[in-house]
Backbone:
């Protein structure tokens, strides 16, 4: 059996099962062992860990996870991959459960409650890029007990998640991610590390969830609507951006007053504000 660390082994398995790649499931399988090692290191997987892997593919990463973690649950949407995983590549592991499910429909909280006594888990994922950000946000917003999430994303998305105020990549995604977690780009992954090659370059980012939120706000929804309004109108000053989107709820005067209260100049642009300042502004409003 052995590891699928040589691309030849991946080809062999795919041929044996006459596997047909499904574009709609964003199937680009990792074939580079160095990248696998970097993911494992970033996720900091050890013998006490309960890991959920989303989108195991043919199980390349899963084999390593099973070797190092206490327990692994792999959630794969494509039914054609299930026999490959259960009868072949992952057959030997007793600490593994393979679920043929769509992660967007799975009740992860219930699963963690039943299988891990509600204790915090680690999440590892290499998913179609168009669903990665919604999934991450869903995991955050539903307050699923998670220690860290280590995911492969488009390189630019990783940079946006990690960006700070005043940089070109800074935006609503940076603030949303940083409110819940501390981002760290663990590796850049070129196209030739996948089979088939994707069109974009990728990066592995680890999101370590905060034990305590970095800012305190009484109305999270309001803070995020301020953030969205500011970045919806990047060229406008903050006051004009906020008035354009939230003018029905707050007069321009109220917004100006709140800014003054926070010591923020009215000509500032949203992209210069820190998370802390958005939090203050939402409290002032
Ligand atoms: N992790 C494997 C690897 O690195 O080689 C496969 C990565 S591939 C980019 C994405 C995998 O996620 C595919 O196996 C695909 O079928 C699966 N997938 C796509 N959408 C999914 C969903 N909504 N829920 C669970 N798995 C999904």
Residues:
């Amino acid at each position: 059996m052995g590891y699928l660390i040589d691309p030849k082994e991946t080809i062999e398995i795919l041929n044996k099962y006459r596997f047909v790649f499904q574009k709609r499931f964003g199937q680009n399988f990792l074939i580079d062992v160095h990248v696998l090692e970097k993911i494992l290191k970033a996720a900091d997987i050890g013998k006490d860990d309960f890991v959920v892997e989303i989108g195991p593919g043919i199980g390349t990463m899963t084999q390593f996870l099973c070797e190092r973690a206490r327990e692994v649950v792999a959630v794969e949407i494509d039914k054609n991959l299930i026999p490959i995983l259960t009868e072949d590549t992952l057959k030997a592991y007793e600490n593994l459960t393979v679920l043929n499910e769509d992660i967007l429909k799975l009740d992860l909280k219930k699963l963690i409650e039943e299988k891990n006594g509600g204790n915090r888990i680690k999440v590892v994922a290499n998913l179609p890029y168009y669903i990665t950000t919604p999934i991450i946000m869903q995991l955050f917003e539903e307050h699923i007990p998670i220690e860290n999430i280590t995911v492969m994303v488009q390189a630019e998305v990783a940079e946006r998640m990690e960006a700070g105020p005043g940089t070109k990549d800074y935006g609503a995604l940076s603030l949303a991610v940083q409110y819940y977690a501390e981002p760290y780009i663990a590796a850049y992954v070129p196209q030739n590390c996948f089979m088939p090659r994707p069109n974009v370059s990728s990066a592995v980012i680890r999101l370590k969830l905060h034990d305590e939120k970095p800012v305190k706000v009484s109305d999270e929804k309001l803070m995020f609507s301020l953030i969205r309004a500011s970045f919806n109108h990047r060229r406008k000053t903050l006051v004009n951006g906020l008035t354009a989107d939230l003018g029905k709820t707050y007069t321009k005067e109220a917004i100006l007053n709140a800014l003054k209260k926070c010591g923020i100049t009215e000509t500032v642009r949203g992209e210069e504000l820190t998370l802390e300042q958005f939090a203050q502004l939402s409290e002032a409003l």
The chain has two domains: 7-209, 220-284.
